[in-house]
Amino acid sequence: MVRPIEPLLPNNSGYNYPNMMKLCAESGRDHFSICQLHVVGEVLAMTDESSWDEEEKCFWLRLRDEGNFGEQWLRQDGYSLGLGIFLEALPAGAPGPDVREGHRKALSEVRGVRSAFNQLRDGEQGQAWQEVPRLSITDAMLGQGVQEVDSDEARQILDGPAISHLLREGFLVIHDALDEVFASEFAEQMAKLDNGWNLHAAPQATPGQRGDRLLWIDEEIAVARYGSTAVSRAIRLLKGLGAALNPALTAHHWANNDAGNPAHALKPRLPATDTAVLTVSPKAQLACYPCDGAHYICHQDNKFRPTHGTRLNSRELTTILYGNATDWDVCRDGGQLKLYLQTEDLESAPPSDHPSVHVAPTVGTLVIFFSRLWHEVLPAYRPRRALTMWILRPEEEESWMPNVF
Ligand SMILES: O=C(O)CCC(=O)C(=O)O
Ligand SMILES: [Fe+2]
Questions:
Q1: Given the CA of residue 359, which atom of ligand 1 is nearest to it?
Q2: Is the Cβ atom of 171 under 6 angstroms away from ligand 1?
Q3: Which ligand has the shortest distance to the CA of 359?
Q4: Which residue, 88, 34, 82, is CA-closest to 62?
């Protein structure tokens, strides 16, 4: 039997260790797993890692969001949690259908809060936050970023002129990043994954924001679960871009920071010889936009909040490999990525006639851009598939939590 999820509580102080044990005893289960934790409107999915600290008499929870852009150890002492926790009295394993329903409700609630948050101006505390208990950063120990992945393929693609273009313009498009055989296998396997009912609707902060369906996937799952060797190779290639860019990116941030741009600050300030700024997200996002005009409105993948001196999340660069047929016709099929140039510091979306580049999502095209650049996916009239990897700045992981607390 699956026990329904506990309702969202405005205050989580009941979820301390003794009470969790009591709940276990009452339900006849030998453990509870925390399946969802909401902090300032983000949903952080719990992995199965939590540990009881005998000395501190508290649980440490390892929290990650779905794409693993944010990760931290959080002390669960009944005071330091955000909007709410859902407890499932479930043995480890796939959630049952009523749990999924609970998740859906929770997500829509969280999205409501989140969109209220997005409408707040810097420093303002809105209605949405009044019930949120204080989350102390000093109670949270930051998790480690994922290791760098070396890839010869990535290094070959990112030669000196390509890197200079990326740093100067904020984006880079390479049309022949994959050889012909790799490209056609990649497109074929992306279609197979999409057509095999493996994807689920992307979460939306506001209705109509995006119409794609997603699968989070890493290079091992791609092979072991789906037999998609070309997708696995593509994920490794994308992961390798981080390592290939590290030295130049570090120098870039140093130069901009020294020139007084706080958005480039390296925290903690790295020694000049240390070039390891970037890590990669463990999983890539496989996204398919169905052919019914599905799109993604103009947005940034990350934001720098000058009044707080923090970023919303750890994403630094967005890297995408497209997996669509070579006869993609933008006039007929639409679906271009529209990148608005030099818009990283804009607070709100630029007008649609702002200088931009349009990228056709043809197989073999690789695009890399700074995640704070405003961009959108234009309506697609043919299934449009993309594999996205976010390259992260792990030292920023703390700052995805806006410090409205
Ligand atoms: O697929 C694309 O071209 C861009 C997708 C995107 O902006 C996103 O997933 O955040
Ligand atoms: Fe995006």
A1: 3
A2: no
A3: 1
A4: 34
Last residue in a domain, options 84, 111, 142: 142
Instruction: Quote the ipTM score.
Output: 0.99
Q: Which of 142, 162, 183 is the last residue of a domain?
A: 142
Is this prediction's pTM over 0.80? no
CA distances from 121 to 111, 297, 347, 404 (A): 18, 21, 10, 11
- 117 and 160 both lie in a single domain: no
Q: How far apart are CA 365 and CA 386, in angstroms?
A: 10
- 331 within 8 A of 342, measured Cβ to Cβ: no
With 0-12 CB in 10 A as exposed, 13-18 as middle and 19+ as buried, what is 248? middle
Q: Which amino acid is at 97?
A: P
Residue 287 CB–ligand 1 contact under 6 Å: yes
Burial 140-163 (b: 16+ CB within 10 A, else e): beebebbebbebebbeebbeeebb
Q: What angle do CA 273, 143, 199 make, to 5 degrees?
A: 110
145-188 pLDDT per residue, tens: 345 678 899 999 999 999 999 999 999 999 999 999 999 999 99
CA distances in angstroms from 167 to 15, 138, 160, 245, 370, listed in the order given: 47, 34, 11, 10, 9
Residue 298 and residue 234 share a domain:
yes
